[in-house]
Amino acid sequence: MAKMLMVDPSLCTGCHRCEMWCSLTKYGEINPSRSNVYVVRREPAVDVPVVCIQCGLCINVCPTGALKRDKKTMAVVVDKEKCVGCGMCTNVCPIGVLRIDKETKMAAKCDLCGGSPACAAHCPQNAIRYEVANKAAAKRRELWAMAHAVRNR
Amino acid sequence: MWYGFAGKLLRVNLTSGEFKVEELDKNELRKYMGCVGYAAKLLYQEMPAGIGPLAPEAKVVLATGAVTGTSCPSGGSYEVCYKSPLTGTWNQARSGGAFGPKLKYAGFDFVVIEGKAKEPVYIYIHDGKVEIKAAKHLWGLNVEETTDTLIRELDDPEISVATIGQAGENGVLYAALINDRGRAAGRGGIGAVFGSKNLKAVVVNGRGGIKVARPKEFAAAIEKAEQWLKNYPLSSIPTLGTVGLVSLNNSLGILPTKNFQETYFENADQISGEVLNRKYQIKRRACYGCSFACGRYTSVMSGKYATPPMEGPEYETVDMFGPICGVDDLEAIIRANYLCNVYGLDTVSTGMSIGFAMECYEKGLLTEKDTEGMPLRWGDGEVMVKLVEKIAHREGIGEFLAQGVKRMAEQLGPAAEEAAIHVKGLELPAHEPRSESKVLALQYAVSPRGGCHMHPNWASTWDFGQLDCGMKEFGMPWPPKEIQDESPQKGVAYRYVALQGEISEILGACIFYSWGTEGSCITPQLYAEIVSALTGWDVTAEELMLAAERSWNLKRCFNAREGFTREHDKLPKRFTKAIPNGPAKGLKVVNLDAMLDAYYEAMGWDKATGNPTPEKLKELGLEFAIMSS
């Protein structure tokens, strides 16, 4: 069964290590603004890692067919030969985890590092995990529900 | 091409309102490695002796190091280097949060601030751009209000704001600079220096990132550090935060109590890390890149000490507003910590100043006439919280307390001297030199910024912690002699403890990660691996040691030029008297002179003055610091 990234914001301490590992793995530099995982750290005490859920909405809007699903990991990946950096995918992404990389001028997104995501491997608090799909889905349901319930508590 | 560093220094002159960007020289930077080392060179060469710390001529250096902003787990740090208005010595105040990393991502390793603005301003640094902007509308606002206003105004929630609060504006001599709302460059009065320059804040953000010379090798070295840190010996720091030390220290009789009159606090279990976690903690919070997350977000929901969510309190703060003032109410402590954060005050000096006043009141040296009718009794949390407010605004008795312990004692006369717990004017932190460790007594005496246990290291790692931190192979005496031993061997050991700690300071690393042994912390050897892969410089642990020694010597030279000498390397009288009660009853410091002799000798310093000899300075390539006399 395919695995997916699962996030537990209650464990996140806002350290941004995932962003650093992501940019180090992808570009050989440490630069949170060139990361495909995002930590939103706000006050008071909000720390939420935001990751691509590989939904594939971006595939449908890509005019050059540069976005496609990897058969092994089920991640949506960018074909560097075809991407023209038009930004349609960033427009349509519902959670804002696609970006046009400022140096390559191409779409950049999480490709699950080919099946061993660096962010999950190096999260010191276990807030980002790489789990089998139905466990990850259960967590997402929980988060979705809690995000809407919080005002009532 | 620069790896690991941004390669640029920003010089801002507030008098002229101009700034310029200077390229760093690689060889010169490598000689000092960066951060505090390079800042020591800058301040030594650019700030002649005798300049008033609050004069327009005084300079401030904001410094980052090689590992700042990188995935090296300790890389969340920056240091503010300046001459302290509290002590008149060299001072460096370290802080975590996001400020240091974002300064580097914005394209600068150092910011040198000079002069004095005519009207309040703030400096905005973003992606290589620099603006000096009006801050009239921010003057009088506290740290939270300033931060919120700037985020709104600059329309960027990801900026990092380092700002002063009312305490810095009002010139409280131990006012802090607070970044990211709850992280303090606390000690020595940098807030007052900012205030004297009409500088409200420095705001940074950047998307430049840090280039890595050998990414694969760097990733491997960082993975090694991550693995080693899983065996970290002071595991209470990640799990309970530093507050975990309250219970432990009390059980050993090393918890400073009632202005260091005692070392054991009966109600310590009411203010422990466990209680903080259970009743007041909202969540754990980390500095940029930190895998430990010692920070705690806490709040008090209701009652007379109701406090909105805020970072802290840390161990030091809990002791200062707790046992030091005889207070056993954790809610009062959290409130006092919050007020220090929003007004911009150093919690250690604030708590110690209040503790000192309470002891003076107990002894009749301060009366209700001096305190506007307010009795300053041990354990009165309400009065303590009120005093924090008064200090920040320098109102009534607060005006007196805002000068720090040394100046207060001078005004109250010889009878108050006994209660004045400071070295060179810096109030001592929450570690007991009589009972915790005797190397610590030595560190308090010689630390360049005064009574300090953190810069450059926590000396007790060696004999109290029984940790070699990778220094055995350099010749550090091993195994450590027992804690209470005051033989010259302690002086020899302190040389190694200090230089090992100084490596963190010159790399821009948090000191917590260097307490352990090979396989359980980031040793100098592992730092050398990390820095080599990062910068491509092929740095060895020996080279790091040498750079650390340069930095450590330059700071001593800075102080020597200001007139500090061996006679200032002394402890408060109280520590030569026995601890009256608790598990450590009867312990005292008796042999400081012999330890000092051994330490100076090990450093290659002159025993009479305690200052680096011309030969030593030549050996280190620091000829410019040889004083003509």
UniProtKB/TrEMBL annotation, chain A:
Residues 3-33, 42-72, 74-103 form the 4Fe-4S ferredoxin-type domain. The keyword Iron-sulfur applies. Keywords: 4Fe-4S, Electron transport, Iron, Iron-sulfur, Metal-binding, Transport. SUPFAM superfamilies: 4Fe-4S ferredoxins. GO terms for molecular function: 4 iron, 4 sulfur cluster binding; metal ion binding. Gene3D superfamilies: 3.30.70.20. The keyword Transcription does not apply. This is Iron-sulfur cluster-binding protein.
From TrEMBL, chain B:
It is an enzyme of class 1 (oxidoreductase). Its cofactor is [4Fe-4S] cluster; tungstopterin. Keywords: 4Fe-4S, Iron, Iron-sulfur, Metal-binding, Oxidoreductase. GO terms for molecular function: 4 iron, 4 sulfur cluster binding; electron transfer activity; metal ion binding; oxidoreductase activity, acting on the aldehyde or oxo group of donors, iron-sulfur protein as acceptor. Its EC number is 1.2.7.-. InterPro entries: Ald_Fedxn_OxRdtase_dom2 (IPR013984), Ald_Fedxn_OxRdtase_dom3 (IPR013985), Ald_Fedxn_OxRdtase_N (IPR013983), Ald_Fedxn_OxRdtase_N_sf (IPR036503), OxRdtase_Ald_Fedxn_C (IPR001203), Tungsten_al_ferr_oxy-like_C (IPR036021), W-dependent_AOR (IPR051919). Pfam families: AFOR_C, AFOR_N. Belongs to the AOR/FOR family. PANTHER family: ALDEHYDE FERREDOXIN OXIDOREDUCTASE, TUNGSTEN-CONTAINING ALDEHYDE FERREDOXIN OXIDOREDUCTASE. This is Aldehyde ferredoxin oxidoreductase, tungsten-containing. The gene is aor3.
